[in-house]
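Meet our chain:
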Amino acid sequence: MTKTALVVIDLQNDFCTGPAVAARYRGDPAVLDTVTGNAARAVAVARNQAVEVVFVRFFGDVEHQGPSWRRRDLVLGKLPKCREGTWGAEFHRALPSPGERVFTKHARFDAFLTDGFEAHLRQEGVEHLVFAGLYADVCVDTTARTAFQQGFHVSVLTDCTTSLHLTDETILRFMSTVYGARLMTLDDPDVWSVPSPPRCDQERRDRCGVPDTATRP
């Protein structure tokens, strides 16, 4: 049986509330409040379903930044966010429980660039990742896209994320079109199940080189 894990991306104060958000988030604050609340609820639901919860957080201190990151911040006038040890870096609404893994990105978008993240998923036999958190068009997409390329099934909880730069519709359509992310809501009864392989006829299987066993129940 394929194992599912909920991956909670950057549910931290500087991305969810307070002055850092007010300075850069141009969407409706009520939407951001709703999706962060839903993401916290997703954590509770996953625990209740005995689904592993993996937290990913971001530390943006200057000393963690590479030259290109520092140059971008200087050019665009960006200030470091989620600095280690500050209120802004603390988790928002949902805290890891004892025993749950927390992986820290040091000035990275992609959780797969964090030591131990993929190794932990492989060790636990996880094959299906359900994503919640922020932001859909930045760290959620970057990590989910790598997950697809690394062979993981990808589902995105559309009511547990929102976009920073693009419209929600644009980035969700991109995820679905480019790497086949399954777009679901938290209350969908199938959210924790692995996506089923599509059925296709023998001619298409032969053309694509798909073995017959791939379409059997």
About this structure: Helices lie at 13-16, 19-24, 29-48, 67-76, 117-123, 136-149, 168-179, 202-208. Residues 3-215 form a domain with the Rossmann fold fold (CATH 3.40.50.850). The chain has one domain: 3-215. The CA atoms of residues 205 and 211 lie 7 Å apart.
